[in-house]
Each structure stands twice: as structure tokens, then as C-alpha cells.
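C-alpha cells for chain A. Residues wanted.
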């Protein structure tokens, strides 16, 4: 796991300090001790249309945000000078790039600008400041999850993982998948307490994140929140069921809430908060539990992988409706480190001619892949070398989308998002094939 406490030592970006000062605003870091932190969280809560957090919630974050880099923008003429008018919170965590291959990622969250100070370039100063600071500190990539899909492309972020929200009509679904809790040597399902949900989620995410590009290592309070144990805001509706294999090893957990349908009780809804499975049997057992649950007419689940196998475990394809959406946005800061962190499925070479609106990753980068699939990236003068598949002209946002293999070069070529020849695009399609569709099962 990456040491995330490095984030708090990263200095503020001088260009953003200057840009905000020219508007009469102060840009500074926020300590977790003291009243300043309460006011910082009140601004964040308001920015996301939420309530003012309770003292217990703020205390929980005080413990959880240890080592994070929290930044506030202050208006000295404001009615509450200690309250920021804009916020951002960042830390370092791992993102999975390919099978058991991870990069330390500058993770950006809590981007808010008060409605009283909107559209004056404050968010731009914050985002550019985050990216320059992270690049200067040697971080190879930045990431975030977003409230609106129109905000971050302009800073060089690209959609790296799209996910699906499922609605399953359980009366029509039928189960044709494995039944690992039956037969010889069966595994078992058990209801568990919320403290066990928290532990199982952390352990199973650790066991499985290396096989899911786009996934993160998370942080302790992520599991606390998903288990319904957020300090100051516990959720008694959260339930969990665990799958244990025949050898007694915990392999899966399904975390959910149930919404009763008072008018038609057997048509109630089971909302899956999160589901983690280490292996096929665990996956089949927990999803069969949800789909065949008595009194449940509908199962919903968000942030699912677009090639999740559930569709092929139910008898009726039309019982599963999927709504797709962008979810994990990544932003390459160091082209060579990012590309070299993944494996490539075929040997060859290409030159990426990259433009970056912030000037961080501008330039021409030659990727050479050997017979073992290992890539070596070097900065070159911009032309294609003899024998190379060719040249790809693209923005850093597009390269960031291609990195995990969540979109193919051929699709980007057809959409007019990159410039290259068809042969090069087809080589890239194969070379960048992901081990599985990129996904991210959480918000941050
Ligand atoms: C979204 C938000 C952070 C923008 O802050 P802001 O200070 O008003 O933004 P800026 O003035 O710096 O604008 C920067 C750019 O983003 C664009 N932009 C800002 N808000 C936008 C929106 N909601 N939709 C589309 N574009 C937007 C601006 O037009 C500007 O474009 P340009 O510089 O390329 O011309 C702010 O409205 C907010 O806090 N919203 C609620 C919380 C939220 O959604 N946060 C994002 C979490 S992921």
C-alpha cells in the first residue's frame, strides 16, 4: 500500500497562489486540528448540497484525513473569514493499471467552490494547482470521480473506467450460474455484523484489486462508511452476507439494504451497496443470494464492471437492465511511468505525439514493446522510427483514457479524438487489451 502521508508534505503551487491572490483570495492548507477543520467540512458539505456535518462526523474525518493535503481558498472580506470559499482534498493511493501492477495516484476529492464565488476561475486555479504540485512531487498520475462529466477534460483528465448501474427483475431472471453452496464440498453463506462487513471488505478488496484495472486500495474509513458505521451517521439499514468456501476461507461479501414495498410486499427492493468476490464460486453465491432472495422483486447495484459475468448467470438476459456512465477519470502526469506500468499483448512500437493543456506531459514518446510484452518509453523528436507501426497524435486526456484499455484506439480514431492510421490503431487495440474491463467500485 502506498504511503499516503506524503501528500501533506507537498507544497502549494506558486502559480495558483498568485492567480488567486490577484483576485484578493488566499490559498492555504488546512490543518485537521482546530475550528478551521470544522469550517472546511461545512463548506465541503454545502458544496455537495448536504447538511452541515455533526461534530462526531468531523471528528471521524479528523482521524481519517491524517496525512491528506487539504487546501482552502479564503476571502478575507467574507462574513466568516475562517470559512473557506473553495476546497480540495488530496492524498496518494494505489490505482491498478494491469494485472498486479499499480501506480501511486494523486487522488483528488472535495472540489467545491461556494455559489457566491462561482465562475471566477477558482476551480481552475485549484485543479491546475493540484496537478502541477503532484507532477512536481513526482506522482505519475492523478485521478478523481466526478459530479458532472463536463468539468475535468479541460485539465487533461480522461474517462478511464465506465461503469454500469443494474436493475434486475428477479421474477424474470432465473438462475443458470454455479450453485457453490449445494452439492459435495459446498461453501456457505452467513449473515454477518457490520464490524465484520468492514473487515471483510478491506481484506477482499486487497485480495482482488490486482485483477481489476482502475480499482484502488481505498482507505480505512471507506470500509467503515460502506458498512454503515460512519461516526456520527451510522446506517442501521446496512446488512451483509458472507461467502466462506469449503476450506473455511472468506471469499465474498455482499453489502446491501432492503426497501420494503408496503403495497406489494413480495415486490420489495434489494439495493446492493457493494459486492466483492474472490473467485467464481464466491461471485455466484452472493449474486444468487440477491437474485433469489424471498420477497424481493428488484435488485439494484451501481458501479458494476461493464463485463461483469452476472448477465451470463441468469436465464433471461432481458431481466437485467444496465445504465452505463463515466466513473473513474485519470490524468497522466508522467507518460513513461504510466505506460511502462502496464503490459502489452503484442510486440511492436508506436510514437505518441502528446499535447497537454498544462504543458506537463507535452512531447513525443516512443513506446517499444518486446516479445514478452514489456514496454519501454523514451522521449523522442516527434517523427516515427523506421519499422514502427506509426504515429499517434492525441491529447493527454485521450492517452489517459486509453491507458487502462477502457476504450480502443479504433473507437477514438472513428470518433475523431486521435489522429493515426488504421493499422496503427488496430495494433494499439490489441496491444492495450485489458485483463478485464476497467472498473472502480467506489466514489472518492
Ligand atoms: C463545479 C465547480 C467546482 C466549478 O467551480 P468554478 O470556480 O465556478 O469554476 P471556474 O470558474 O474555475 O471554471 C473553470 C472552467 O470550468 C467550467 N465550468 C465550471 N462549472 C461548470 C459546470 N458545472 N459545467 C460545465 N463547465 C463548468 C467553466 O466554464 C470554466 O471553463 P473554461 O475555463 O474552460 O472557460 C463549482 O461549481 C462547484 O463547487 N459545484 C458543486 C460541487 C461540485 O460539483 N464539485 C465537483 C466535484 S467532482
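Reply:
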Amino acid at each position: 500500500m502506498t504511503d499516503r502521508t506524503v501528500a501533506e508534505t507537498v507544497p502549494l503551487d506558486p502559480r495558483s497562489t498568485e492567480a488567486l491572490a490577484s483576485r484578493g483570495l488566499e490559498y492555504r492548507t488546512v490543518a485537521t486540528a482546530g475550528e478551521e477543520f470544522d469550517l472546511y467540512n461545512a463548506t465541503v458539505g454545502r458544496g455537495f448540497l448536504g447538511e452541515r456535518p455533526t461534530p462526531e462526523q468531523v471528528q471521524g474525518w479528523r482521524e481519517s484525513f491524517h496525512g491528506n493535503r487539504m487546501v482552502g481558498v479564503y476571502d478575507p472580506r467574507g462574513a466568516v473569514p475562517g470559512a473557506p470559499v473553495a476546497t480540495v482534498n488530496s492524498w496518494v493511493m494505489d490505482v491498478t493499471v494491469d494485472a498486479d501492477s499499480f501506480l501511486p495516484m494523486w487522488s483528488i476529492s472535495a472540489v467545491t467552490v461556494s455559489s457566491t464565488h462561482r465562475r471566477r476561475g477558482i476551480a481552475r486555479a485549484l485543479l491546475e494547482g493540484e496537478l502541477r504540485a503532484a507532477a512536481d512531487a513526482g506522482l505519475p498520475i492523478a485521478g478523481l470521480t466526478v459530479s458532472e462529466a463536463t468539468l475535468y477534460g479541460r485539465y487533461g483528465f480522461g474517462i478511464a473506467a465506465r461503469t454500469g448501474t443494474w436493475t434486475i427483475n428477479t421474477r424474470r431472471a432465473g438462475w443458470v450460474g454455479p450453485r457453490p453452496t449445494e452439492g459435495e464440498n459446498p461453501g456457505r453463506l452467513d449473515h454477518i455484523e457490520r464490524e465484520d462487513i468492514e473487515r471483510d471488505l478491506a481484506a477482499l478488496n486487497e485480495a482482488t484489486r490486482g485483477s481489476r484495472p482502475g480499482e484502488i486500495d481505498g482507505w480505512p474509513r471507506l470500509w467503515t462508511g460502506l458498512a454503515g458505521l460512519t461516526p456520527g451517521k451510522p446506517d442501521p439499514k446496512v446488512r451483509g452476507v458472507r461467502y466462506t468456501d469449503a476450506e473455511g476461507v472468506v471469499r465474498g461479501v455482499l453489502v446491501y439494504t432492503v426497501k420494503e414495498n408496503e403495497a406489494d410486499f413480495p415486490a420489495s427492493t434489494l439495493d446492493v451497496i457493494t459486492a466483492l468476490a474472490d473467485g467464481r464460486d464466491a461471485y455466484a453465491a452472493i449474486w444468487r443470494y440477491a437474485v433469489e432472495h424471498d420477497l424481493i422483486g428488484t435488485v439494484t447495484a451501481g458501479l458494476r464492471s461493464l463485463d461483469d459475468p452476472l448477465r451470463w448467470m441468469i436465464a433471461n438476459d432481458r431481466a437485467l437492465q444496465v445504465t452505463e456512465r463515466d466513473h473513474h477519470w485519470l490524468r497522466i502526469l508522467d507518460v513513461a511511468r504510466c505506460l511502462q506500468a502496464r503490459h502489452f499483448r503484442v510486440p511492436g512500437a508506436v510514437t505518441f505525439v502528446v499535447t497537454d493543456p498544462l504543458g506537463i506531459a507535452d512531447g513525443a514518446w516512443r513506446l517499444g514493446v518486446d516479445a514478452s510484452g514489456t514496454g519501454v518509453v523514451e522521449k523522442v523528436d516527434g517523427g516515427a522510427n523506421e519499422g514502427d507501426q506509426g504515429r499517434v497524435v492525441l491529447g493527454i486526456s485521450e492517452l489517459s483514457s486509453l491507458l487502462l484499455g477502457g476504450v480502443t484506439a479504433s473507437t477514438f480514431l472513428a470518433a475523431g479524438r486521435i489522429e493515426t492510421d488504421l493499422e496503427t490503431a488496430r495494433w494499439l487495440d490489441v496491444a492495450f487489451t485489458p485483463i478485464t474491463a476497467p472498473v472502480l467500485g467506489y466514489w472518492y
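The chain has a mean pLDDT of 96. The CA atoms of residues 299 and 324 lie 17 Å apart.
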